[in-house]
Design brief:
Blueprint: H1 4-7, H2 12-39, H3 46-50, H4 57-60, E1 66-67, E2 73-74, H5 83-95, E3 98-99, H6 101-108, H7 112-124, H8 142-151, H9 154-157, H10 177-186, E4 196-197, H11 200-206, H12 211-222
Antiparallel strand pairs: 1-2, 3-4
Helix pairs in contact: 5-6, 5-7, 10-12
């Protein structure tokens, strides 16, 4: 896929100047569409969601739990994540836009109401554990700052990468760095029926960077204070 600026017919010399701007404009447009869609979405019930988490807690309810596909990495923290994003992600797995055999199998068995209930549960989950004192965001190195600016990451994921422009975009501050790295690289993956993510915006952005650069950005974003957490859960509690 061509860089974002080239998709709009700009000459290569303008790409570096316009790519962040175009990313911002596209994010604003998508946020408006997402907000409109969200207004018509199924309303989730957190209490109902608590009764449907048996399949989720085997991975997302264990601190430090590692997945082995497509490589070894910690599974993402989803407690504290925005409900609309969780619904969006589950739908992407169900439609095959995110290719992951385990998550596809799980999402295939979920109705829209199930997704909304689970999302409502995890959005609120852990908030009653107490609020940690605010921590200042660690400043990136000049090299990482340049990479983040090139990708216009904050234009969608928001201030300190914890206040997304739209609730359908994920909070990523403090997310496991190894998971973020795998996720970013998955947008570059093509021709694999079992792994990868089909997203035009993220694909165009991720393909601008080497895997080493994506890892450097993931390491920085993962080091930031954020709202995401893993709350230990048991089927037998």
């Amino acid at each position: 896929m061509k860089p974002l600026a080239n998709l709009f017919g700009f000459c290569p010399q303008m790409t570096k100047l316009l790519s962040p701007l175009l990313s911002s404009l596209l994010c604003l447009s998508l946020a408006f569409l997402a907000a409109t869609s969200h207004a018509q979405a199924v309303v989730g019930d957190a209490k109902a969601g608590e009764k449907k988490i048996a399949t989720c807690i085997g991975c997302h309810g264990i601190k430090g739990y590692q997945a082995s596909f497509p490589e070894v990495h910690r599974v993402p923290m989803i407690s504290g994540q925005s409900a609309p994003y969780i619904v969006s992600a589950l739908n992407a797995y169900k439609k095959g836009e995110r290719r992951h055999p385990t998550m596809r199998g799980i999402s295939d068995n979920l109705t829209e109401q199930d997704m909304a209930d689970l999302a409502a549960y995890y959005e609120a989950h852990g908030k009653d554990d107490g609020v940690l004192p605010a921590q200042p965001a660690r400043q990136p190195t000049a090299a990482v700052a340049a990479l983040l600016q090139k990708g216009a990451c904050a234009s969608c994921h928001g201030e300190n990468f914890s206040k997304p422009l739209s609730p359908t975009y994920p909070k990523i501050a403090g997310q496991h760095a190894d998971y973020l790295s795998v996720a970013l690289r998955s947008y570059k993956l093509e021709g694999n029926n079992n792994a990868g993510r089909a997203n035009g915006i993220m694909g165009g952005i991720a393909k601008q960077f080497s895997n080493a650069e994506l890892k450097a950005m993931a390491n920085y974003i993962g080091s930031l204070p954020g709202e995401l957490k893993t709350v230990p859960q048991s089927k037998f509690k």
